[in-house]
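STRUCTURE:
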């Protein structure tokens, strides 16, 4: 078994970094787009400064629509978009497109939930003293939700690792692709067990790091 692990080590190393690349891109896009969408879902709610049933309803429907589609179906559905952006439909960069699309609404809902934990009285007091919406978002909402946002990123990262493994089943690269090509198709139990162990260790490390950072920034 050890000899077999050493033999596949170069492929395992490549697959590991492909998985990190896919998850990293998905997380970055989720942070850039999912964060503002989540904030928008919150501040357009009833009783807040940008209250709008229409805006909240439209954004909410789009977010729920994307989240309701199973990832493997979303992956195939986005092939034309992926081909347009990346120029191909296989490989880690191609899979990153679908991972990013899946991550945006996922993280947006987490951001909205974290923002709901804020005492609305604090926001009302800020409005009463003349604070602008952008100032409230920058100086109240974002600082107050920081631990929740980091925990949400951790949850999103772990979910993306699972999605990346699914992407590997149809040529997305990464550890999932290695498990399918070398483990499943060749009936190699050593490869299957090794890839599962690597994924478990990766998830545990991300969870530990995320919890540590969230506790560090939590001033409560």
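SEQUENCE:
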């Amino acid at each position: 078994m050890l000899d077999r692990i050493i033999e596949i080590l170069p492929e395992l190393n490549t697959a590991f970094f492909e998985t990190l690349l896919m998850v990293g891109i998905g997380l970055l896009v989720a942070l850039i787009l999912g964060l503002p969408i989540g904030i928008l879902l919150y501040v357009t709610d009833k009783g807040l400064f940008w209250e709008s049933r229409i805006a909240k309803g439209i954004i909410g429907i789009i977010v729920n629509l994307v989240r309701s589609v199973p990832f493997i179906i979303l992956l195939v559905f986005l092939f034309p978009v992926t081909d347009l952006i990346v120029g191909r439909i296989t490989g880690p960069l191609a899979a990153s497109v679908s991972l990013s699309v899946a991550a945006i609404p996922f993280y947006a809902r987490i951001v909205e939930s974290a923002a709901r934990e804020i005492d609305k009285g604090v926001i009302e007091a800020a409005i009463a003293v003349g604070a602008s919406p952008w100032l409230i978002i920058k100086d109240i909402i974002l600082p107050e939700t920081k631990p929740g946002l980091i925990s949400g990123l951790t949850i999103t990262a772990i979910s993306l690792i699972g999605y990346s493994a699914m992407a590997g089943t149809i040529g997305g690269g990464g550890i999932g692709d290695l498990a399918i090509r070398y483990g499943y198709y060749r009936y190699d139990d050593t490869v299957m067990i090794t890839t599962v162990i690597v994924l478990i260790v990766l998830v545990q490390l991300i969870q530990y790091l995320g919890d540590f950072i969230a506790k560090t920034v939590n001033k409560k």
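REMARK: The CA atoms of residues 13 and 175 lie 9 Å apart.
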